[in-house]
Amino acid sequence: MVVKAEAAPGAPRIVTILGSTGSVGTQTVDLVSRDPERFPVEALTANRNATLLAKQARDLNARLAVVADPSAYAELKDLLSGTGIEVAAGAAAVAHAAERPADWVMSAIVGAAGLEPTLAAVRRGAIVAFANKETLVCAGSLMMEEVKAHGATLLPVDSEHSAIYQVFDFERTDSIARLILTASGGPFRTKDRTFMAAATREQAVAHPTWDMGAKISVDSATMMNKGLELIEAHFLFGIPEERIDVLVHPQSVIHSLVEYVDGSVLAQLGTPDMRTPIAYALGWPARIATPAERLDLVKAATLTFEAPDPVRFPALRLARAALQSGGGAPTILSAANEVAVQAFLDRRIGFLDIERIVEETLTALPHRPLRDLAAVREADADARRIAAGRIQATGATAVGSR
Ligand SMILES: NC(=O)c1ccc[n+]([C@@H]2O[C@H](COP(=O)([O-])OP(=O)(O)OC[C@H]3O[C@@H](n4cnc5c(N)ncnc54)[C@H](OP(=O)(O)O)[C@@H]3O)[C@@H](O)[C@H]2O)c1
Quick one: how far is CA 203 from the chain centroid? Predict the structure, then answer.
C-alpha cells in the first residue's frame, strides 16, 4: 500500500462519492454534509436512484451527478434543471466522474461495476477510500500494481480492514505474524443447514449488528463476505492466505486484530457504525469527529468468540481455495457469487443454492492468470454466463414459495 505525504490537517479536500445513494454512500454523504466547507463535492454517482441522487447533489452543491443506468437520465435531468449541476448517464460517465479532479474518492459502488471507476480514480493518483471489496477480489494484483504505478493511496473502509490498517506496522511488515479478521457470524450464525435451505430473502438480509445494502447482507449470511474480505486483506496488506484467520465475534465490537511475532495482539474497537471507518478515511491522516455511539465496555459487558463452522458455512473454504488457486479464480468466485446472490434476492434460487452455484462455476472454468484487464473482464463474463446457466437450471426445477 502506498502512503502519501500527509496533507495539511483540516485543509479542504474535494470529494467524489461513487455509489452515493447506497448504504456506505449515504453515510459518507452524512459525514461530508456536516462540514461542507472542508469537503466540497465534485461528483456523486448512483445506478438509478435519481430522486435521492438529485437531492444529495442539491444539498451538497455538487458539480456533477451521474446515473449508471441511462433509463434514469431524463428523471435526473428534470430534477436538477436550473441548478447548474451537470448531469450525465451510463457506465462510462460514472468512470469519467471518477476522473474529475477530486482529492478524495469514495469507492462505494456494489460489485464489479465499481472496477473501472475505481481504477480511474487510482490512475489519477487520488486518495481512494475503498469500500467496494469486489473490485479488489476480481482484480487484486492488477489494482495494487496500478496503485503503486500512479502513487495513489488506498484507504480501506470495510470496518475490518480499517481496523487492521490502524494497527498495522507498514514499516516492519516482517514483524507481523498474522491478521485476524473478525466476523459477526451473520443472521444464521446459530442456524442449521435445514433452516438455511428454506431461508427467505427477508431472513437473510436481517443482519444482527450492521445495517447494510442487500448484497453484502446476503454475503454476511453465507459468510462469503468474510471470504471476500480475506482475499481483500491479502491484496491490501500483502499477507499470505495461510496467515489470515477468521474469528467469529457476534458483538462486532473488536473490528479486527493484528498479531505480531512477539505475541502482542493489537486491535481496533468501536460500536458497529460504518461512519467511524468512513470518517477515518475521510479525514486521514487527521481524525474527525463522528456522531457514532461511543463504546461503553461496561455496557457491552461480554465479548464472545468462536471459530467459524466450515460445514455450515462452506463459502469461507471456497474463498480460501480460490485465493490459493490464484489467477482468475477469485474473479470467478466473486462474479458467480454476485449473480447467485442477485438470483436469491430475486427469489429465483434458494439460499444454499448460492454456494453451490459458486462452487460449480469455480469447477467449470479454468483459473487462468490475469495478465491484464481484458483477462479480468473475460473471466468475469465467463463466470457470469456459467452461473446464470446454473441458476436457470435450478429455477426450472425448484422455486415454489420463496
Ligand atoms: N454497507 C456496509 O455497511 C458496507 C460495509 C463494508 C463494505 N461495504 C462494501 O461497500 C460496497 C457498497 O455496499 P453498500 O452496502 O453501500 O451497497 P448498496 O447499499 O447496495 O449501494 C450500492 C451503490 O452502488 C450503486 N450501484 C449499484 N449498481 C451499480 C452499477 N451497476 N453501476 C454504478 N453504480 C451502481 C447504487 O446505486 P442505486 O442506489 O441507484 O442502486 C448505490 O449507490 C460493497 O462492495 C460492499 O461490500 C459495505
Answer: 21
Residue nearest to atom 3 of ligand 1 (CA): 212
The residue whose C-alpha atom lies closest to atom 2 belonging to ligand 1 is 212
Angstrom distance (rounded) from CA 18 to CA 39: 15
Angle, CA of 35, 85 and 87, to the nearest 5°: 120
Q: What is the mean pLDDT of the chain?
A: 95
Measured between alpha carbons, how far is 4 from 152 in angstroms, rounded to an integer? Answer: 8
How many Å apart are CA 390 and CA 347, to the nearest integer? 15
From 30, 118, 216, mutation site for ligand 1 pocket: most ligand atoms within 8 A of C-beta: 216
Q: Whose CA is nearest to atom 13 of ligand 1?
A: 110
Q: Which of 311, 360, 309, 371 is nearest to 332 (CA)?
A: 360
Proportion of the chain above pLDDT 90, given as a percent: 94
Ligand 1 binding pocket (C-beta < 6 A) is 19-25, 46-49, 68, 94, 108-110, 113, 131-134, 158, 210, 212-216, 274
pLDDT, tens digit, 9 for 90 and up, residues 289-331: 999 999 999 999 999 999 999 999 999 999 999 999 999 999 9
Number of the ligand 1 atom closest to the C-alpha atom of 225 = 47
For 241-293, what is each residue's pLDDT tens digit? 999 999 999 999 999 999 999 999 999 999 999 999 999 999 999 999 999 99
Distance 319 CA to ligand 1 centre (A): 21
Q: What is the mean pLDDT of residues 373-389?
A: 97
